[in-house]
Give the backbone structure.
Amino acid sequence: MTTKLVTAPILNSDMDDDLESKTVYIFDYDKSQKFDKTTNFLDYINNLGLLSDIYFCNTSKEERFELLLYYMNNKIFNHITSFNIAILNCIYKLKNANLRLKGSALTNEMEIEFSKLNKSLLNRWIDFFDSYLVYMIVVASNKDKSIKERYGDKICNDKDLSPNIVSLFLDDFFYDYYKTGINDNNIKYWKYYYDNKLYDNKSFNTIMLNDANFIIKILHDTSTNNKWNEFLEKHL
């Protein structure tokens, strides 16, 4: 996979002729054309349909916060690695975890402030991530039907989160999150996000079965092991 540093609006000469190209276009925010609204910058990138990321240098804290919050609340599925890194770093700070990723859209000081200002939203993402590990175990153990039956009042019908919450599972660095442990009280069956094609018209299972997700491969290989049955009995 190659990368190209570009500005918005992107020129045709900057784009690969091959429409199936795996080039990641990194947009230099500071050098790009300014839009009427800060968030229109992200809309523009979304509409291009390219593999993309955003590079910040002298960008103000306010603009970065606005773009990141828009990404975390937008109903259009996208994947911005520098945003995903920032979100994870903020979550690690909330969980007092000794983990730190490079390449964040925010500086360390910005992450600390963003975490404090948006604690409630970040905690909802934590709830989803904690539930996801159990979902993977259940799918790997071929117990998808029983999980819905056993969850009962833990079935979650929340539709307010951005589908971008699932984009983190496309990044191999995401899976270190589970080293921080999960809160049993967070576990829910997120029906809307599990059962609908919200991710560029792809299903939740399709996103889950990607090259970065080494956990599901391990679970598939060990799904006949009694330890997973014991885990399921304990948590479900």
